[in-house]
Design brief:
mainly alpha; elongated
Length: 125
């Protein structure tokens, strides 16, 4: 799970950087839509970076660590597809990437559900 911590740190840094960029460099009414996309992407990316750290912190304490690893991978897929799609749309205007974002959203949901199942198994055994 060392890789999860590394990726969490990188995702956290990217999210904060892009959030700051959106707040400052994208200010202005002509960029409001793009700025909103970047802010939303950065928000979701940061939340899931923190979740990756939390998963890495508890992975060895849970009997079924495969579920936690799968949850971490699902969240990484969510970051790439959901946040990545929002960033691509914001910076390029290619709205076709809107079709990619739901894949990431589903991956986020799957990740959280896998985390829930791992927690349930931890406390039911």
């Amino acid at each position: 799970m060392r890789m999860s911590v590394i990726l969490a740190g990188l995702n956290g840094a990217i999210a904060v950087g892009l959030g700051a960029f959106a707040a400052h460099a994208m200010a202005g009414s002509d960029m409001d839509y793009a700025r909103g996309l970047v802010e939303k992407g950065a928000h979701y990316q940061l939340i899931h970076a923190v979740a990756l750290v939390a998963i890495a912190a508890v992975v060895r304490q849970v009997p079924d660590e495969k579920l936690l690893r799968a949850a971490a991978y699902a969240m990484l897929v969510g970051i790439v597809f959901f946040c990545g799609a929002l960033y691509v749309i914001a910076f390029t205007g290619l709205s076709v990437f809107g079709a990619v974002a739901p894949i990431g959203g589903i991956a986020f949901i799957v990740g959280w559900l896998l985390l829930a199942v791992a927690g349930y198994r931890q406390f039911s055994s």
